[in-house]
Amino acid sequence: MCVKDAPIIVSFNSKRGDIVLAQFILDYFWNRAMIVNAPRGAVEMINLKCST
To answer: How many domains does the chain have?
Structure first.
């Protein structure tokens, strides 16, 4: 299945420890992250750089 063909998720409830994938709209790169805190208000993004 192509990412473009993936179903639209109406609701997403993340919890601490979940691994997520999202596309950054300014550069269209896909980014992986682990949920370390799930606030109920505004969302905070921490940029993690991984080297291979």
So the answer is: 1
